[in-house]
Backbone:
């Protein structure tokens, strides 16, 4: 990214770096500068919690008796 592009959208670029944790490289006069967040957010923390999802070994579900639940 050029310094001109940074100047044009600096707040949007800074927000993107803070949200994603991915650094941005700026080129100016043949040299490079990196803008990065000091505390990079964990990718696991960004996951959406889904309490309706069953956590466990999928092989355990194969042997469950679903006969009483089955309807045609």
Residues:
């Amino acid at each position: 990214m050029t310094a001109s592009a940074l100047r044009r959208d600096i707040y949007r670029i800074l927000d993107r770096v803070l949200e994603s944790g991915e650094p941005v490289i700026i080129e100016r006069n043949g040299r490079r500068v990196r803008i990065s967040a000091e505390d990079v957010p964990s990718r696991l923390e960004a996951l959406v919690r889904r309490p309706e999802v069953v956590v466990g070994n999928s092989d355990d579900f194969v042997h469950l008796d679903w006969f009483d639940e089955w309807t045609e």
Q: What stands out?
A: The helical segments are 3-8, 10-20, 59-62. Residues 10-20 form the longest helix (11 residues).
